[in-house]
From TrEMBL:
It comes from Halobaculum gomorrense. The lineage of its organism: Archaea, Methanobacteriati, Methanobacteriota, Stenosarchaea group, Halobacteria. This is Putative [LysW]-aminoadipate semialdehyde/glutamate semialdehyde transaminase. Its EC number is 2.6.1.118, 2.6.1.124. Its cofactor is pyridoxal 5'-phosphate. Its main location: cytoplasm.
Length: 387
């Protein structure tokens, strides 16, 4: 039995401590439980399945690679890993082309911290209130929520938090001792808070002036989630480091830290035994290939607009207890007037729809990007009823 399963977070995490749903299989946008009940997965299991569950091209690539070679130490080049370096380098925003591979989001951010510190020779990091960057002691130091941080202190030092979206506060915090500014282009865990493109641009301008690395944590926003492959592309702002994980290998454990040359050239030694594991790399190659070839981000824009419009109409028409509907593409937050948890439970139990919370009062929708308008409609109707 796991000590730290999701049910342990049931307070504001998930709702199934009272009736666990044991999931045994998945196909496309659906998950099937042990008792054969089929659920529409509108959380994409924390945005980890942009192409849906068990996309055939990814499953095939994994099976073939597993039969060929499960693992080889990272110091020997391997076809799947080399291909992934190239693919990620090719789709990375702007001039970024250097790739560091690891096994999770938090490790990708740890690496970003280390690379920024060593490339700049500075220590200070600026992060944002309500931000989430992971749970190892470096990334945790940049994660805002006290509940996650306080029991484990001391975490890594040198981190200052500023209000998200406030360019002046950022300008005040960043100086010539700042190694990096870490931002999510849309805050995920913090309640689905999209940044104004002007804010991201001002972060770009002032970090450039200060010789500071701008890091975009796209672990949740990336892989097409917001309607562009990377959310920063939609805003037209290029970071020095971009971190990705979650959906990049369709749910297999992979994180990547994508770096501009000046970061990669100045970074001190870092390493990980599993970096670029061939099977996981094969999954990521197949995921990226399909995502790009089928313009899945474009589809996410279209269905996301439809879903948001339908939600807003339902809220207005039925006078639902909703404060705000916000987000980008298929990263949507519905801020409700009371706790979100009971709505999530009703969605799951009465409508077989799985969604996520983001804090106490926000329902978070992060469906697979391949949903169609019918699925969107089904969820709007169900939400109308439970709300
Ligand atoms: C999930 C998440 C992380 C942490 O990723 P793990 O793989 O759980 O370590 C970091 N940043 C953001 C924005 C995330 O959504």
């Amino acid at each position: 039995m796991s000590v730290f399963d999701d049910a342990a977070e049931a307070g504001e995490g998930f709702v199934f401590s009272e009736k666990p749903i044991q999931i045994e299989s998945g196909e496309g946008v659906h998950l099937t439980a042990e008792d054969s009940t089929e659920y529409l997965d509108f959380g994409a299991s924390y945005a980890c399945t942009p192409l849906g569950h068990c996309p055939p091209a990814v499953v095939n690539a994994v099976q073939e690679q597993a039969a060929e070679l499960l693992y080889v130490q990272a110091s020997y080049p391997n076809g799947a890993r080399t291909e992934l370096y190239e693919r990620l380098g090719a789709v990375a925003p702007g001039d970024i082309s250097k790739v560091w591979l690891c096994n999770s989001g938090t490790e990708a951010n740890e690496a970003a911290m280390k690379f920024a510190r060593s490339a700049t020779g500075r220590e200070k990091i600026v992060a944002t209130k309500r931000g989430f960057h992971g749970r190892t002691l470096g990334a945790l130091a940049m994660t805002w929520k006290k509940k996650y941080r306080a029991p484990f202190e001391p975490v890594a030092g040198g981190v200052e938090f500023v209000d998200y979206g406030d360019s002046e506060a950022l300008a005040e915090a960043v100086d010539d001792e700042t190694a990096a500014v870490f931002l999510e282009p849309v805050q995920g865990e913090g309640g689905i808070n999209p940044a104004d493109p002007d804010y991201l641009q001002s972060a770009r301008d002032l970090t450039e002036d200060a010789g500071t690395a701008l890091v975009f944590d796209e672990i949740q926003t990336g892989m097409g989630r917001t309607g562009d492959l990377w959310a920063c592309e939609g805003a037209g702002v290029e970071p020095d480091i971009l971190t990705t994980a979650k959906g990049v290998a369709s749910g297999l454990p992979l994180g990547a830290t994508l770096c501009a040359d000046w970061i990669a050239d100045g970074a001190a030694s870092h390493g990980s035994t599993f970096s670029g594991n061939p099977v996981v790399a094969a999954a990521a190659n197949a995921t990226l290939e399909e995502l790009v070839a089928e313009d899945v981000p474009g589809h996410a824009t279209m269905v996301g607009d439809y879903l948001t419009t339908q939600l807003e109409e339902a809220v207005a028409e039925h006078d639902l207890p909703v404060r705000d509907v916000r987000g980008e593409g298929l990263m949507i937050g519905i801020e409700v007037k009371r706790g979100a948890n009971r709505y999530l439970r009703d969605l799951a139990m009465d409508h077989q729809i799985l969604a996520l919370p983001a804090g106490r009062s926000v329902l978070r929708l992060l469906p697979p990007l391949v949903i169609n308008e019918g699925h969107a409609r089904e969820v709007v109707d169900a939400l109308t009823e439970v709300l």
